[in-house]
UniProtKB/TrEMBL annotation:
Catalytic activities: L-glutamate + NH4(+) + ATP = L-glutamine + ADP + phosphate + H(+)
Domain GS beta-grasp as annotated: residue spans: 4-85
Alphabetized UniProt keyword annotations: ATP-binding, Cytoplasm, Ligase, Nucleotide-binding
One GO CC annotation: cytoplasm
Entry EC no(s): 6.3.1.2
Biological role: Catalyzes the ATP-dependent biosynthesis of glutamine from glutamate and ammonia.
Protein name per the record: Glutamine synthetase
Species whose genome carries this gene: Cnuella takakiae
Amino acid sequence: MSVAKLEYIWLDGYKPIQSLRSKTKIERDFSGKLEDCSMWSFDGSSTEQAEGGSSDCLLKPVYIVKDPQRKNAYLVMCEVLNPDGTPHESNGRALIEDDDNDFWFGFEQEYFLWNPATDKPLGFPEGGYPRPQGPYYCSVGAANAYGRDIVEEHLDACLEAGLNVEGINAEVAAGQWEFQIFSKGAKEAGDQIWIARYILERIGEKYGVTINWHCKPLGKLDWNGSGMHANFSNSTLRTCGSREVYEQICESFRPYIKEHIDVYGPDNHLRLTGKHETAAIHEFKYGVSDRGASIRIPIATVERGWKGWLEDRRPNSAADPYKVAARIIKTVKTADVAVTA
């Protein structure tokens, strides 16, 4: 009889940033298929998701991959449900209206590798600061790239798990890195980002390094913040071949600045200042190849004859990809354009 370890992963009810939680379920003769993952439960009173007098919350498995860090094991992403089977209020995945997977998402997840002993990023000397930003972006060498062992181990683990990682790179600040994940389907894109975050957190345990997801962990100092740029398309954007249609879709975002900022991660006012490759938080603008815009129209989209995707640059590194995707989809669906099959 074979024995499998299933790590059930979910998001707790903490605010303003939800944390990852997980626990292990042992299954005998497990098939490895999602449909054979049973519902489970947990103590919601310990995760800000229920009262002690009625503490059970349900875990509904929604996505499964092999666990690259344990033997005979799987990582199972779960939605949190109330005891009656309805989505819990903390369940951002349930907000996504993309049952036909018409929307494709690619998230660019930035983060800092953080030294808990100094309470600064890797590469920051104790009691001071490294050279100004500039040499660290896509860098190589011990003088510029910090924590590469962790980053490479994370990449290998994600690929071994079967996640669709499209690339990694060192970012603009010392100790700052990025990975990109793409999926044809908003829910799966969110699933994969959360599992990739989980794997990175677990690797950090091994090295005694924490992962700082905050969008501006260095405060008001002259260092870039961390984003989670959301690249998205639907059948219209992928096939329309029309600049006018693209501009109509971009304009559909203008009336909903607050609604987007509300789910684009906490403390975004520290990051969206109009500097450091960002637009100002209460403004909205878009443009071709403009990294200072709210929404960038990639040059590749234009070169393909206005067939491609858009990039919302406002979501920050701590945002919930489920809620980001849900809001983008809701806004795009308000655009008064014909859908091309």
